[in-house]
Amino acid sequence: MDMDMDLGSGPTVHQLRLFLILAKERHFGRAAARSFISQPALSRQIQVLEQRLGVAVVERDRTVRLTPAGLALLAKARAVVEAMDDLRQTAQEQGRAARGQLVVGTIGAEAAMPHLRAVLEQARQHNPALEIRTRLLDFVHHFAALENGEVDVVFCRPPMPPHIRTRHLADEARVACLPAADPLAGRASVKLADLGGYPILSLPPECPQAWRDFWAADPRPDGNPVPYGPVVGDIEALMLAVSDGHGMAFLPAAARTLFPRPGVAYVDVIDLPPCTAALAWAERNNDNPNLRAIRRAAETISLPGRRSDRGLSTSP
After folding, report:
1. Which segments constitute the HTH lysR-type domain (predicted)?
2. Domain ranges of the chain
3. Which residue ranges in the chain fall short of pLDDT 50?
């Protein structure tokens, strides 16, 4: 026997869904067309629903009106249908759950940042079969590792090169990293104009020009050229060069806490635009299920400094 016609059982979700459509359309013909069934079939399903519930839910006249019982049952029917839709969606998500291994790259101290820990915790919680490994990368390698497939995603600081997509995670001020002996090191804050003539430690030429320019604050608002110092390939080399007096750098404000070093001082720069933290991946891997898992995790977290108007992009 057709389960929908078994009057000894309760109403089906299909019947409740038809009832909701009919309640909205208030017309059997329109409701049937919207449900992709014939009008007699719809009428029969509503009759069976009423028999199973033991009450009439609609009054059949020139127009369809809900009975008092139908009105009372409407919210309950909607809750059942929504709960079943939610159940099916959860089952589908579990069926698509990420499996295997995801290699996550980090640069500098990103591994210690709250946004990274929150995203990875969320990804592990919802994808228990996914093995997540992290790898520390230098300034050059965090671009190359994405492009050659050594890592699947990178927690980084935009701007990023073309064909790299990003999910914004947080905004953060940038500070000046100066030799501790410098006269400006004792000040609470400076302006970019105060730093004119200070050599900026160079980032490797293999890094995208837009990235190098951003972290050098080049060009400057006053139009003066930015002098450059020695090339540094990672954060520790940068710290050593600053402490030895070979130049200065602009870094995320978190460097104050994460990179306290002898001979190094941090000073606020009141007119320096902030930087952003992001999750980045190669555009060609956009549909990879493991990447989708960590991107979903990044979309659901809520962190201080995160702006709701930021999302997928290829720029800072």
Report:
1. 11-67
2. 3-95, 100-171+276-313, 174-273
3. 1-5, 304-316
